[in-house]
Every structure is written in structure tokens, then in C-alpha cells.
Amino acid sequence: MGQAVIIAASSIICALVLYKVYRRLRFKLPPGPRAWPVVGNLYDIEPVRFRCFAEWARTYGPVMSVWFGPSLNVVVSNSELAKEVLKEKDQSLADRHRSRSAAKFSRDGQDLIWADYGPHYVKVRKVCTLELFTPKRLESLRAVREDEVTAMVQALFNDCTKPDESQKGLVLRKYLGAVAFNNITRLAFGKRFMSDEGVIDEQGLEFKAIVANGLKLGASLAMAEHIPWLRWMFPLEEEAFAKHGARRDRLTRAIMDEHTRARQTGGAKQHFVDALLTLQQKYDLSEDTIIGLLWDMITAGMDTTAISVEWAMAEVIRNPRTQEKAQEELDRVVGLDRVMTENDFSNLPYLQCVAKEALRMHPPTPMMLPHKANANVKIGGYDIPKGSIVHVNVWAVARDPEVWKEPLEFRPERFMEEDVDMKGHDFRLLPFGAGRRVCPGAQLGINLVTSMLGHLLHHFRWTPQEGIKPSEIDMGRIRGWLLT
């Protein structure tokens, strides 16, 4: 029995090695680090992948092969190749690689994020661009965003003026996370799960538990996702995923039913759940697709804005002159007798540049979600076989010294000197992606980041904790900023 297992395992390994050699002989693949049998480069990849791949690109070039087990992953790291992937060869690279967990969560791509490019994707994308993220709808929901940012300022003020808190650092992440949580649940579900005192209600606790459980389930399969023959050791827990899906659907349907009853009594709102239910027949949307789209918005919007603003504030505190210039502009344009609104953005060019520079240096998704080749294609003169997984290292693209002057310096003024689009038209700056799969909610994200940043700078002066100079701030540990 033991000998049979050894022979079977050896046969599988030999077959994989032979197949890999065949692919290398048939195709001119991009260069890359030496791959080991079976595991490929998995044991060489450092935990922060986008930094690791950026380092490797210095050795192997801006397009390189990285093997996740037997799967070929192609990573591009400059704007020229990003344009080739996301625009010139976009149609051949518009499919989505789905792990087993992503396939389960998305009902095999019945949402938008994980759908392959085809009729379903085109339909739901149309719903997003023509119905959900239009300027009219975003304007109608502006009061929600401004209400949550104002609540953040009030909470910060209350906490930093408490006598026993006056000399303690505040963990800014907590306040930013509350804004992101309340904002996305109100936009998507039309519900605020958190009271003004910060207490989360029963539905909110269930919502957070579902999010946490989804992350746990997804992380449990990491290694087996890349090495197929290991999957018998890490089987997909069908029952656990089924229970998770049922739990998610149960909460979502309960909220959908509440909105259906409200619409029947004339209480329809502009929130996304109302919009999708109203548009269900017009676009022939299944219930799975509606639920998938709502959770796409939550997944894409809950943490990204908070992370972006936290990085932005860390950079502002490290660069006191930037803080002074932004506050001077806010005091001059908005004044001290009212609060900033989104209508002020057009008169606050420096604030917009600060937000843009933060998104350049610290994009919320440093490695773009994986694309998959649906045909053999060439990138940078190299062959990319059908089925290969293609990644754009957005973090590396935005720090390329070939196209950015002093790329490691936080310098918002660069965008006063040259206006650079960041919604997918200029491939030097791609915080929201580009091409067929560009984020449809890019403008919503920009508005919220700019609003949160503006309010934090307009209402408070920020310094590091006592004993730390701005230049000594460790950007690997950005928490505990002190208000003075």
C-alpha cells in the first residue's frame, strides 16, 4: 500500500515537471525566479507580496513569471505594460481567476467582482455604471457620507477632550473604521447598525460576524489553492461554506424584505438595495446576483477607505509642511464658521492633491485582483498562455522612477504641476484599476477619502506621540496619533 502511494505521488510529480518543461519549450515565457518542483516559488514569496514582487522586478524586469505551485502567474510592474494588460490586450485578459473560496462566495461568479467577462458581467456592469454609481445617485447619498464624517469628528473631539485622555494617543484606525462601516452599510443596506454611542445592534453584530467568518474560511485554504494534489489534505468544507452562505443570505434577505415593505408604503430610498430591487425585472437580476452585488460593495468599500485615510494621515503627520498648507487652504476657503462639504472640493485643489498623492503611494489594493487569460496572448514580447493568471502590481507602477520624479517622496505638489487622472485613464496611477474591470465606485471612494481627510485636517492639528519626531515615524506601525 505504502509503495503504491509513493509510486502514484512520483508519477504525479513527474507529470507536472514534464508539463512545465513542455510549456517552457512551447512558449517564450517571461523571466522570473527559479521555480522548485511542485511548489514553484511559493516558499520564496515574502508575506507582503507586492513589495516582494517589486524587488524581484528589479532583477527580472517589469514582466516576470512567478509560479504558484504548477500555475503560471505573470506580474507586470510598470505603466507601459499595465496599459498593455488593461487596455490593449484587455479583452483577452478580462476573465477572473477564482479560488475555491471565491467561487463559493460568489456562486461561481454570479456577482460582479468574480464574474468572467461575458454577457452576465456586461449586464451587471451596466447596472453599476448606469444605475448605481451615477452622479445623480451619488449626490442623493451625499448626506449619508457627510453625516458619518461629522459623527467621526464629534467622536474624536469628545474623546480627546476627556481629562484622562488629554495626553494619550488616539488610535485613529478605530474612528476611520467606524466611518467606513457605517457608511457602507447605510449606502448598501440603508441601515445604520451602530448607535451614536458606538453600540452595534443585533443585526450589526450578525453582519460583522459574517464578514469575519468569511475571512476565516477564505484563509483556511491558502496553500491547497495553489497545489491541486494537496487538496485531498485540505478539502473544501462544503458544509461550512454552505452554512456561511445561508447565514449571509438570511441576513440580506431580511433586510431586502424590510425595504420591499417600505417601498409598498411609499418609503423607497436611493440606497443600493432599493435600487437593485427596483431594477430587478428591468435587468433580469437573480436574487443571487443582487445579494452578490451588495456584498461586492461591502467587500470593496468597508476597509479600503479607512486604510487609505490612515496612510494619508500618517504621511501628513510625517510632513508638517503639507499639513500646514492643507490647513491654510481649508481655513481660507471654508473658514472657521462652518464645516466643509463635498461642494467645497472644487475650491480645495491642494486637499485633492494630498488625497491623490496618498492613493499613489498607498493604493488600497496594491496588487490588482487577478486577471486570467482567455486566449494565448503576448505581453511585453513574451507569450502568456491561455489560463495564465495575470497581476498588475499597482504599488510598483506608482513608484516607478522612470515615470515619477522622486517617487518615494510624499509630495502632493506634483499634482499641482501636472494633472494626472486616477480613474483608469492614465496608467501611471491606478488605485481603482482600469479597462473593462475598472472599479465602478471609484468616484465614491475618492469623495469619501477626500471628505474624511479634509475634516480631520480642518478640525484638528495632528502630531506624533510625545517624544517622536515626524521624521522618525515608522510607516510600518501607523497607529496612535495624538491630537493637540
From TrEMBL:
Heme binds at C439. The keyword Transmembrane applies. It comes from Stephania yunnanensis. One of its GO terms (cellular component) is membrane. The keyword Transport does not apply. It is a single-pass membrane protein. This is Cytochrome P450. It is found in: Membrane. The chain crosses the membrane at residues 6-22. It comes from the Eukaryota. PROSITE patterns: CYTOCHROME_P450. GO terms for biological process: secondary metabolite biosynthetic process. Gene3D superfamilies: Cytochrome P450 (1.10.630.10). Pfam families: p450 (PF00067).
